[in-house]
Amino acid sequence: MLNKISEFIKNENLIEASDKVLVAVSGGRDSIVLLMLLHNLKVSLEVAHCNYQLRDNESEADQKFVEGLCKKLNIPFHTKKFETVDAAKNEGISIQMKARDLRYSWFDKLLKERGLTKVATAHHLDDQLETILINLTRGTGLKGLRGMKVKRDNIIRPLLCVSRDEINDFIYENHIPFREDCSNASGKYFRNKIRHQVIPVLKEINPSLFQAINNSTKRLKAVEQNWEEQYKLWKKKLKSKDNILIIPFTEIEASKVTFLQQFLRSKGFSYPDIELLIATNEKGRSFYGKDNWKLVTAANQLEVFQPEEPELKEYYLDEEMPINLKIECFENGIVLHPNGNKAYINADKVQGKLKIRKWKQGDWFIPLGMNGKQKISDYFINNKFSLKDKEDTWLLCDAEKVVWIIGHRSDNRYRIDPGTKNIYVVTAY
Question: Which is nearest to 5 in space by CA: 31, 37, 28?
Answer without folding.
Answer: 37
